[in-house]
């Protein structure tokens, strides 16, 4: 029998733990995943960082996932010094006007030499994408043009992006293919010295728009991996307009170092980041992300660090209008 005095201890232990990650079977390697269900047949497609943007499909978020190939097998038509047009990052895919739009990144790692491009497809299949090149976010030292995530708000085409340097920005696009004259603006910023925020995603649920972002150190986990807590983790802010004014659960402005922890390292899940959200007909609101299996972290560095990240997901519950990671 538990003595009464054990009850507070039990609650403390529960409060700091996360439920198990959702299962993934088949080909689960991914980095910066984007998941979408094909409108015609409900089949799941998963895109990720890698040659021509990696494409996988599955009958459910659990898998089994099958590798299909590069979305843009010949790479992008974009050209940037010191980059390989096939080495594309951080896709975001949505459906609009009877077709799919994929935003992707061409970037020189560790620099602001980056561009966000867009391609369209009717089917999501590798090789079916028509590349349209850069969307035209103006260059600015205030941000880095990486990690796009699209959302439509009141008929406006809104792109969240950035940034590592300068953290998270938004820009209103003239069309899903082009940014016009609208200037990007900041939506989240950590004012402390190592203020890394990137890999954001915005979605609406109930009365609020939620901004998820990845904070901390994204990789290099196999050699000089970061001190506990400094690695990637996912934070959340919310807003009633979705176009700024994001605050955290304590009411702190997310442009002034606000941001509530949603998911951090636990068990085998090290450095979760690159989140996205969709509504599953069986599971409800699902957040997916990549993580680094802890067992891999202790091995030696491989030539391509990207291969070690795995896909996972959890159901989100909401309490008082704030999401939390719920047991599946
Ligand atoms: C801001 O950055 C500091 C230093 O990296 C970190 O300790 C803190 O958790 C960050 N705050 C938020 C809200 O992300």
Automatic annotation (TrEMBL):
GO cellular component, one term: extracellular region
UniProt EC number: 3.2.1.99
Signal in keyword set: yes
Residue stretches spanning the membrane: none
A biological process term (GO) from this entry: xylan catabolic process
InterPro entries given in the database record: GH43_arabinanases, Glyco_hydro_43, Glyco_hydro_43_endo_a_Ara-ase, Glyco_hydro_beta-prop_sf
UniProt catalytic activity: Endohydrolysis of (1->5)-alpha-arabinofuranosidic linkages in (1->5)-arabinans
Location within or outside the cell: Secreted
Pfam family, one: Glyco_hydro_43
Site (Important for catalytic activity, responsible for pKa modulation of the active site Glu and correct orientation of both the proton donor and substrate): 147
The keyword Thylakoid belongs to this UniProt entry's keyword annotation: no
Pathway given in the UniProt record: Glycan metabolism; L-arabinan degradation
Keyword vocabulary terms for this entry: Carbohydrate metabolism, Glycoprotein, Glycosidase, Hydrolase, Polysaccharide degradation, Secreted, Signal, Xylan degradation
Domain of life: Eukaryota
Endpoints of the signal sequence: 1-17
GO molecular function, one term: arabinan endo-1,5-alpha-L-arabinosidase activity
Catalytic residues (UniProt): 32 (proton acceptor), 198 (proton donor)
Function: Endo-1,5-alpha-L-arabinanase involved in degradation of pectin. Its preferred substrate is linear 1,5-alpha-L-arabinan.
Family statement: Belongs to the glycosyl hydrolase 43 family.
Name of this chain's protein: Arabinan endo-1,5-alpha-L-arabinosidase
Organism encoding this protein: Penicillium olsonii
Lineage: Eukaryota, Fungi, Dikarya, Ascomycota, Pezizomycotina
């Amino acid at each position: 029998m538990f003595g009464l005095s054990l009850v507070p201890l039990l609650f403390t232990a529960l409060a700091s733990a996360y439920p198990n990650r959702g299962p993934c079977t088949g080909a689960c390697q991914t980095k910066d995943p984007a998941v979408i269900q094909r409108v015609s047949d409900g089949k799941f497609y998963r895109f990720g960082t890698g040659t021509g943007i990696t494409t996988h499909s599955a009958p459910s978020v659990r898998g089994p996932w099958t590798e299909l190939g590069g979305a843009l097998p010949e790479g992008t038509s974009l050209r940037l010094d010191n980059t390989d047009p096939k080495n594309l990052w951080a896709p975001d895919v949505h459906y609009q006007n009877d077709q799919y739009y994929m935003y992707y990144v061409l970037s020189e790692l560790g620099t602001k030499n980056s561009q966000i491009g867009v391609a369209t497809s009717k089917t999501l299949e590798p090789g079916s994408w028509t590349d349209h090149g850069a969307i035209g976010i103006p260059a600015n030292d205030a941000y880095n043009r990486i990690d796009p995530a699209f959302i439509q708000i009141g008929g406006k085409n809104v792109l969240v992006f950035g940034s590592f340097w300068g953290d998270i920005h938004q820009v209103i696009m003239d069309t899903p293919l082009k940014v016009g004259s609208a200037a990007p603006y900041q939506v989240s910023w950590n004012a402390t010295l190592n203020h890394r925020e990137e890999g954001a995603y915005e979605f609406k649920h109930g009365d609020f728009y939620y901004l998820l972002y990845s904070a901390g150190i994204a990789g290099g986990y196999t050699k000089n991996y970061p001190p506990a807590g400094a690695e990637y983790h996912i934070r959340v802010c919310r807003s009633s307009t979705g176009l700024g004014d994001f605050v955290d659960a304590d009411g702190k402005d997310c442009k002034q170092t606000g941001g509530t922890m949603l998911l951090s390292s636990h068990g085998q899940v090290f450095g979760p980041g690159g989140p996205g959200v969709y509504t599953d007909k069986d599971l409800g609101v699902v957040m997916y992300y990549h993580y680094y299996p802890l067992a891999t972290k202790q091995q030696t560095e491989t030539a391509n660090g990207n291969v070690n990240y795995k896909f996972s997901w959890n159901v989100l519950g909401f309490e008082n209008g704030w999401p939390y990671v719920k047991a599946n």
